[in-house]
TrEMBL record:
A Pfam cross-reference name: Sulfatase
Cofactor(s) listed in the protein's UniProt record: Ca(2+)
Protein name according to UniProt: Sulfatase
A GO MF label: arylsulfatase activity
Sulfatase N-terminal domain boundaries: 37-375
Keywords: Calcium, Hydrolase, Metal-binding, Signal
Signal peptide per UniProt: none
């Protein structure tokens, strides 16, 4: 059969076009598959759920965080694994309940003894990530961060809180200037008179992000020392908040109510704390703007969270309390939601559709399993699990069962006593096991945990208590 020249030319051009199109398409798919997202984790110390404008605060102005939340998947049923710093952070970093040597100590955790196949940071790093940690670590010395998988760290080590937020940061501003606290490394060497710790920290996070190898993704965790005590802020911000608080009508809301061995603060009326929250928000805004300026915001996953509830409670020793978690009950140190419910939202532009999830029960121990799932599609089979299906609108975890155990209570400092808790779906049971006292709440109807329904529901109470004790027996 005779084939015309014109037909051969058309056939040749068609093949060339199709091959070229296929090559371009393949290149695009390859780029999309290999262009892993950057990750920025912003973790705030002692920030209560209601310390943000988006969560109802009428005192603290947090426009940058509020704007970030509106672009994110917001989890309104997110919990810390413990109502104080060290175990909560241990749980987040390891993806497990904070259980060590058969108990949940309130302090003394170390990040050694975690095998590589259970280490989220090392697994993410092995997939090609630059890793860095800034700020409050409180889980060992500087060397422990490298051992755990972080290439770089700044101002991170034993310190659980600053000696001072005002330069010089490792000199107390009261008494003789000495302190028993661990000093924060690095910061005084890059600071000058008049500097404020949050600003210095943010400067160094920004410097790191700006200078990273642009051919490799980064995972940076910025763990604010704020808004933990000492309550120290910039004078102009304190004065502004004094005026705003003075003119705010708290109506008939009492300033304190009795709780446990002490008091619960019921008003957000501390001008220094308000100033600290607002400075923290400004620094979050600086980092968000930097990502835009570097044109990497669309391909950067941002996780915002807090380690537990705000400091609203004291015990037999009266304290300068920072904030109120109202309408949640109690605060830091307690297993009521005021102590363990935290803000948590996740943003990844063009990947996670912004929404508010009021039903799914998630925990801080789920954060790194989720990040590992996103970056490597792997699971390390820990207590925490990836909530990527929720982010992708493929699942909801409304019926999840989760646990807490607090055996190192602080009746002197935060007014709490030894307790354990279980949440199963809408129901939450708290057991003060030394006092043989149990309370049951339907969180969906009673988020303030004021209506104990254990007597009206004896079978459910016993069922949940049995499940809680069964979990504890496996420590």
């Amino acid at each position: 059969m005779k084939i015309s020249k014109s037909f051969l030319v058309i056939l040749l051009l068609t093949c060339v076009f199709n091959c070229k199109t296929k090559t371009i398409s393949s290149e695009k798919n390859t780029v999309s598959e290999t262009k892993k997202p950057n990750i920025l984790i912003i973790h705030v110390d002692d920030l209560g759920f209601h310390d943000l404008g988006i969560n109802g605060s009428k005192i603290y102005q947090t426009p940058n965080i509020d704007a970030l939340a509106k672009q994110s998947v917001i989890f309104n049923n997110a919990y810390a694994n413990y109502p104080r710093c060290v175990p909560s952070r241990y749980a987040m970093m390891t993806g497990n309940y904070p259980i060590q040597n058969g108990n949940v100590p309130d302090d003394g955790f170390k990040m050694d003894g975690i095998p590589n196949d259970k280490n989220f940071v090392k697994n993410i790093k092995a997939s090609g990530y630059q890793t860095a940690y800034f700020g409050k670590w409180h889980l060992g010395n500087e060397e422990s961060l490298k051992d755990f998988g972080y290439d770089f760290s700044f101002a991170a080590g034993h310190a659980g809180s600053p000696i001072s937020f005002l330069y010089p940061f490792n000199v107390a501003k009261r008494g003789n200037g000495k302190s028993k606290k661990s000093p924060i490394p690095d910061v005084d060497n890059v600071s000058k008179a008049g500097d404020y710790l949050m600003d210095v920290m943010t400067d160094n996070v920004a410097k790191y992000i700006t200078n990273t190898d642009k051919n490799k993704p980064f995972m940076a965790m910025f763990s604010f020392y704020a808004v933990h005590q000492p309550l120290e802020a910039k004078e102009k911000d304190i004065n502004r908040n004094k005026e705003e608080i003075k003119n705010f009508d708290f109506e008939n809301q009492p300033e304190f109510i009795k709780e446990g061995t002490g008091r619960t603060k019921m008003r957000q009326n501390h001008p220094k704390y308000a100033a600290m929250v607002e400075t923290m928000d400004e620094n979050v805004g600086r980092l968000l703007q930097l990502l835009k300026d570097l044109n990497i915001d669309d391909n950067t996953i941002i996780v915002f969270s807090s380690d537990h509830g705000g400091l609203s409670n004291d015990g037999t020793k009266k304290r300068d309390l920072a904030t109120s978690n109202y309408p949640l009950r109690a605060g830091k140190g307690w297993l009521y939601d005021g102590g363990i419910k935290v803000p948590l939202f996740v943003k990844w532009t063009n990947h996670f559709q912004p929404k508010t999830d009021d039903n799914s029960i998630v925990m801080l121990m789920d954060v790194f399993p989720t990040l590992l799932d996103i970056t490597t599609n792997k699971s390390l089979n820990t207590n925490g699990k990836s909530f990527l299906p929720i982010l992708n609108n493929e699942a909801e975890w409304a019926d999840r069962t989760v646990f807490w155990h607090s055996s190192k209570a602080r009746p002197t400092n935060t007014g709490d006593t030894k307790s354990s808790a279980i949440r199963k779906g809408n129901y939450k049971l708290i057991n003060w096991y030394k006092e043989e006292r149990t309370e049951l709440y339907d969180i969906s109807k009673d988020p303030s945990e004021m209506n104990n329904i254990s007597e009206q529901n004896p079978e459910l109470t016993q069922k949940l208590l049995k499940e809680l004790n069964s979990w504890k027996s496996k420590f």
